[in-house]
Amino acid sequence: MAEQVKLYAIIPKLELGKRLDQALTKLFPQYSRSCFQRWIEKRCITVNGVIIDKAKYKVFSGAIININTTIEEKKCLEASDIPLNIIYEDEHLLLINKPSRLVVHPGAGHINDTMLNALLYYLPTLILVPRAGIVHRLDKDTTGLMVIAKTVSSYNYLVAALKSRMITREYEAIVVGCMTSGGKVNAPIGRHATQRTKMTVHPMGKPAITHYRIIQRFRGHTWLRLQLETGRTHQIRVHMSHISHPVVGDSLYAGRLRLPKGMPEYVIAVLRTFNRQALHATMLRLRHPISGMIMEWRSCLPGDILELINAIQSDTDHTAVK
After folding, report:
1. Which of 112-121, 167-176, 194-203 has the highest mean pLDDT?
2. What is the CATH number for 108?
3. What are the residue numbers of the active site?
4. pLDDT, tens digit, for every residue of 65-106?
5. Do the record's keywords include RNA-binding (predicted)?
6. E strand spans, the chain
């Protein structure tokens, strides 16, 4: 379905000399700049009755703007009735606790079964917000907290806050090996040269920094709390693998299963059947885009990771008794 859009405005003095697309984004913050650029290209916008087809057109104060167009919902952005675990909502943002197996954005093999499709079903007006309001991603098999912007202005604010490192994101993970101390991984990440679904540490990659500290050590594993300073694709998974402590269950970066000698069979069974990376986004802290209030949310570890922790704890206890 197409939504009819009719807008009218007079350019104020503050916007004098700005590009048309920039001025319109200020006047109508519910729509994105790229949206206005498309409408300009489609010749849907007039200034003092004259059609303008260049986004770089410089506006002048007192000019009368008329916009008459439609918004078409793209096929790849279909709404799907997929349950969302919403832990907070107001007029400007949503906080979602993402489950495992839920892909965030549509792509090859996932057209109508993603979080984006679920968001459009829950709140159809998100079709007007870039990426349906999704500010940052979690991998398909990573669980935990994600923030969603409900308006274009909130989206722009949160994306800028993420870039300037004003949003704090903490994770918990179970990694292979018994680590002796916390630390920091400062290693650039780029696309793997031959395996295009993988990322890798590479000197020509983008800067990437991950901080980690130990929550608990086990005989052959470590429970970590991690904080992202940057947000590269697969960052925690790549960095932990890079320092030879890959995330348990990570089929892409962990390699073959490594088991300490003498591990009980039932613990081995838990490790063998743990079929996703043991990584959960536990905490999100940000300044609210409108009120400016510092807000923080936390999410408990899901049941499968707790079961994994119990199993490797019992292996540690079993060895201590022996």
Report:
1. 167-176
2. 3.30.2350.10
3. 139
4. 999 987 655 444 688 999 999 999 999 999 999 999 999 988
5. yes
6. 2-10, 45-47, 50-51, 64-72, 86-89, 93-98, 143-149, 168-176, 183-186, 189-191, 199-201, 209-217, 221-228, 279-287, 294-298
